[in-house]
Write a structure and sequence with these properties.
The protein is an alpha/beta fold. The chain contains 15 helices and 14 strands. Helix content is 39%, strand content 12%. Helix 13 runs parallel beside helix 14. The structure holds 6-O-phosphono-beta-D-galactopyranose (BGP). It holds the Pfam family Glyco_hydro_1.
Length: 480
């Protein structure tokens, strides 16, 4: 068979992706309040806190470092960074707004003008270079006050506070932002409820009912954001955002195939089905029954969800997962976000994430088959340790290889007929890792001189991949 030439559509949205809490720093500047990542320590203890968040939400500077406090100081250096994105030819830049810059405690009636003005400046700077902002409304954070006083999203009151927050954003930025998405990797809270839901779960019994009730509140809030976006900003598009991890059966034993299917339904499709199809999928009802979950649903909630589905599906893709029903600890792969067994056909990153470009083509096909809505890959990339040579250069050919193979897979999926809007690799500039709180897990085209111990000049340097990606964009994906 001849190899077809893969064409990326005209207007394909090439760019890069970041999140406020991993990028900005200035954690108490401009009137900002504390948010959940501000009290997440760095280093090995961070993962433990994410998975078992029985901590008291107080700062312990004498005990831990809080890498988000300075992050890479985008708060003061955004002009320099945006100029570098423009040099690479970005069409879009994905960033998130920190809720606690706009409403420092989360439940106030009046927003913080300084916070609003900061994002005005950032959006203006992007638009100056014709870079469209792609905005995540909530990326793994909520004001800490909402966690302490209300118990995070387990409280219905957060729907009201969120509505006030998004109304403020749409009103203020309606002439500047066309692409929005509601909750980052909404399904990841199934595994780490502290991240997006702000739930400090202490025990297993405390997991099922509160987590799914909190999800219900987020789905209502998300549907309301979709409704408001469509009413307030004609022509804007608003998506959901899920972490998609295609799940393979470890072998062809039907027991294992069924097991993988059920894992995939719950993790990959539960949230998307609600936000894209507008209703709870049938499979979740059995799960709720088996775990004694009974949701409190108010009158009008299900209609709101049904009538306000998203315009596109944004997703992150880093790895696939391989599963079997009965596994022992020694089958389990070291680093994958949500476990699974080792896939003998795949290599792993330095953090044990299994690298699988074909899995991206599979994901795009699966998502498109299921939803028939445009897809936007808003995160993908290789976290790696980079070395700065004596002359200041950084040869990250391993990153180029990784991205090249994944972009090829996107081209194949487009050829399969999948509608893909764009591609924004994660951490286009080095930033704080969400899972480790460290700097040494780098994803960027731009190196930032900052280290795990907090030292460094914060100077920016172009890596080899910077020049490579610039050419990818300039040729609309023809030269890889
Ligand atoms: C996603 C998150 C991002 C980001 C990325 C890489 O799950 O949406 O916030 O950090 O993963 O993960 P990490 O930083 O842990 O390597």
């Amino acid at each position: 068979m001849n190899e077809l030439k893969k064409q990326f559509p005209e207007g394909f949205l090439w760019g890069g992706a970041t999140a406020a809490n991993q990028l900005e720093g200035g954690h108490l500047e401009g009137g900002k309040g504390l948010n959940t990542p501000d009290v997440l320590p760095g280093g090995k203890v961070r993962l433990k806190v994410l998975k078992d968040p029985g901590f008291d939400f107080e700062l312990h500077p004498e005990k831990y470092t809080y890498p988000n406090h300075e992050a890479i100081d985008f708060y003061h250096r955004y002009k320099e960074d945006i100029a570098l994105f423009a040099e690479m030819g970005f069409k879009v830049f994905r960033l998130s707004i920190a809720w606690s810059r706009i409403f420092p405690k989360g439940d106030e009636l009046v927003p913080n003008e300084e916070g609003l003005a900061f994002y005005d400046r950032v959006f203006d700077e992007l638009l100056k270079y014709n870079i469209e902002p792609v905005v995540t409304i909530s990326h793994y954070e909520l004001p800490i006050h909402l966690v302490k006083e209300y118990g995070g999203w387990r409280s219905r009151e957060l729907v009201t506070f969120f509505e006030r927050y998004v109304t403020t954003l749409f009103n203020r930025y309606k002439n500047k932002v066309k692409y929005w998405m509601t909750f980052n990797e909404i399904n990841s809270s199934l595994h780490m409820p502290i991240l997006g839901l702000g739930l400090a779960i202490q025990t297993e019994e405390d997991y099922y009912q509160p987590t799914f009730q909190a999800y219900h509140h987020q789905f209502v809030a998300s549907a309301r954001a979709v409704q408001l976006c469509h009413e307030m900003i004609p022509g804007a598009q608003i998506g959901c955002m899920i972490v998609y991890i295609p799940t393979y059966a470890g072998d062809c034993n039907p027991e294992n195939v069924l097991y993988a299917l059920k894992e995939e339904q719950l993790f990959n499709y539960f949230c998307g089905d609600v936000q894209v199809r507008g209703e709870y999928p049938t499979f979740i009802k059995r799960y709720w029954k088996e775990h004694g979950i009974k949701l409190e649903i108010q009158e009008g909630d299900l209609e709101l969800i049904k009538e306000n589905t998203v315009d596109y599906i944004a997703f992150s893709y880093y790895m696939s997962r391989t599963e079997k029903k009965d596994k022992t600890d020694k089958d389990v792969v070291s680093g994958n976000i949500i476990g699974g067994i080792k896939n003998p056909f795949l290599k792993e990153s330095e953090w044990g994430w299994e690298i699988d470009p074909i899995g991206l083509q599979i994901s795009l096909n699966q998502l498109y088959d299921r939803y028939q809505k445009p897809l936007f890959i808003v995160e993908n990339g290789l976290g790696a340790i980079d070395k700065v040579e004596a002359d200041g250069s950084i040869h990250d050919d391993y990153r180029i290889d990784y991205l090249r193979e994944h972009i090829k897979a996107i081209g194949e999926a487009i050829e399969d007929g999948v509608e893909v809007m764009g591609y924004t690799p994660w951490g286009c500039i080095d930033l704080i890792s969400a899972s480790t709180g460290e700097m040494s897990k780098r994803y960027g085209f731009i190196y930032v001189d900052k280290h795990d111990d907090g030292s460094g000049t914060l100077e920016r340097k172009k890596k080899q991949s910077f020049f490579w990606y610039k050419n990818v964009i300039a040729t609309n994906g023809e030269e890889l």
